[in-house]
Batch of 2 targets.
Target 1
Amino acid sequence: MLTLATLANPHRLRVVAVLAGGRKYVSQLAREMGISRALLQVHLKKLEAAGLVSAQMEISPDGKAMKFYEVTPFAVHLTPESIAAVVPEMTGTDTARGRDEKGTV
Amino acid sequence: MLTLATLANPHRLRVVAVLAGGRKYVSQLAREMGISRALLQVHLKKLEAAGLVSAQMEISPDGKAMKFYEVTPFAVHLTPESIAAVVPEMTGTDTARGRDEKGTV
DNA sequence: AGCACATGCAAAGATAAGTTAGCAGGTGCT
DNA sequence: AGCACCTGCTAACTTATCTTTGCATGTGCT
């Protein structure tokens, strides 16, 4: 769920695509993607929260603090069966209320 | 994208899970899941739009019109590479603006 | 000091998505 | 006729998500 919701966004999908080509620091990434740094940061935060990317803070030789991001090598397989296997399917009662983390689907 | 966005919802995930166990008509499904028919219909419509489920309208032996839904046997594989392969990554310009259908990821 | 570049955060505004409530239509059975 | 089922739609509301704007911090170079 978290993974799916996170990937269900054009910007974040692009971030993953770009980072798949190698690590980048946020300002660099923002320029490359043509979006504002603030916006990118929000998306990076979500991607990180979902465990799809990870970051390392580094100090460049000229003293600038730079945060490098890279993709986590994830692999998600979606089929009706895999979903049925993960979703708790208690027939009658309300269940989907207030639950939002699944992490495995 | 469409597929991901559609699956990124607890209700719709549950619908897929339940339908993976066999076809159901909407009122039956609503009861079984403990949600309102109106709500279910909205989600079914989205699932259908994404091609994840399909419907057949049938007339039961006692004359009632019933709409049966069943899952489409889809299979989506998500990895950084598969995403990078699909996402058009024109570096600089604004690209993610206003596009939302992808259909393939 | 002033400029260029790096990070980080949050309030506020704009959009999109989810949900409910209420109405419409139809069939069959008592 | 009245009730129990079935479908379908939408207007209005609530909630979540996305995006912008603006400010604060720090470094190095001229």
Note: The two ends of chain A are 6 Å apart (CA to CA).
Target 2
Amino acid sequence: MPTPRPQRPDPRANPIADDGSEVRFCSTCAFSGACVAAGYDKAHLRDLHVLVEHIGPFRAGEHIFRTHDPFRAIYAVRAGLVKTVTVDPEGNEQVLGFYLPGEVVGLNAIYPEHYPCDAVTLETAHFCRFSFPAISALAARMPGLQQQLFRLLSKELGMTSLLAGDHAAEERVAAFVTDLGERLAAQGFSGTRLRLSMSRVDIANYLRLAAETVSRIFTRLRDQGLIALEGRDLEILDPAGLGALARNVRER
Amino acid sequence: MPTPRPQRPDPRANPIADDGSEVRFCSTCAFSGACVAAGYDKAHLRDLHVLVEHIGPFRAGEHIFRTHDPFRAIYAVRAGLVKTVTVDPEGNEQVLGFYLPGEVVGLNAIYPEHYPCDAVTLETAHFCRFSFPAISALAARMPGLQQQLFRLLSKELGMTSLLAGDHAAEERVAAFVTDLGERLAAQGFSGTRLRLSMSRVDIANYLRLAAETVSRIFTRLRDQGLIALEGRDLEILDPAGLGALARNVRER
DNA sequence: ATTCCGTATTGATTTCGATCAGATCGATGC
DNA sequence: GCATCGATCTGATCGAAATCAATACGGAAT
């Protein structure tokens, strides 16, 4: 029996999300909502704009920061994909998260004042770098920005406690795919046709499963007609069905 | 062979941590460091003090807030013990965390704007209630307070990613005990003689293990001479040995 | 094309912790 | 004291996912 095949995702689906204008921000900027929506005047916007540093490109496999580096900045992904990983004393890696364009990396370093993980790009990536002392000082003058930082931190808290739950392997994988789709959709990409730029090993590690288990579950989901998958190109064929599997992981 | 028995913890070990003076805070207050240490003047301290509402006592089993309640406030534990739990659509409970005196409950509600979990007291408890709009407004004028809120959020992020890792049951339990001891010590209690006010079921649920497994591991740790345990009274006999087991969970 | 090598899939077996079942302990009330 | 009930502990069995092992795929270099 033939299994469904996905169409190739649009190669333009992952551009650098920056419209380049002087006092406006990347359309997907993690802070744009805090500023533009709150109706800040040009002076405030300029303050924020000035403290941003556009960095990149980083090629796949490069480090943005490493464990124990002193915490100085948070990084908003402009384009590309990043993972954060910890390495325990025995050398076991643990993927903490994947970050898409418009999302912010490094918030978990605030308390320890050192990055508690490595941030590694999985495909060519660009970032906005925000000095943390500068952005928190500005946040004191821009309540909307302060609020946005609180929200980003709290959101990330919610993310981790989803995966911290104990769930069957199939539920985890379904939740992972559903979540990725939703996050991509939130950033204006297709929520149903996407590219898994991370390896199966990384996915498995993130989900606290063996790579073989992830592989088996992907084929099972494909046989059930919920997804189409060829290599790293994924299409969600039945979002409702997949969401039903993910329900116990995500809905609370 | 006789197994070691703990001495009873000092019953005074868990007082209401409030010295009662007008413009000073509970000695264990989660925000005291942000204020007193930063040398704020009386006016600022009074602002913070005014927005605090002392609530309690709550008896064991009472709810501070419930899932889906609109988010209005964060709660600092003054005395007692709280757990936060989610309930999935099938009714499975999931303990997200335990909160000791001096710690803050409710931060994960900022982003969704509704509490994503129930907060339930496990023993008689008192709280300081901080209206979130009020405290974040004040934070904009008190950089030290803003910083403290960021740190609390970031700290909680670090906590959850510890338990999110995949670790052997014994490592989890060892890490749990070690962590509890350290957190109690940080609040001025004994770090080696403590009372597990939560049930074995709650501990197991928090660690994503079966209650039977937790029980077995406690006896194993006792047989190894690492802990003494009688009912809910625990003494850490060999902090280094226990820490070695916990090392892969905690050290990164 | 062909080789090479890292990545992914598929199959066989093992293992750790869950589940099922029963015993024991401890606090409370009669 | 004695009965009762919930919580905890201990033992026996089961099962989902890990591990071990081998094969297949796919892109890059020759």
Note: The radius of gyration of chain B is 19 Å.
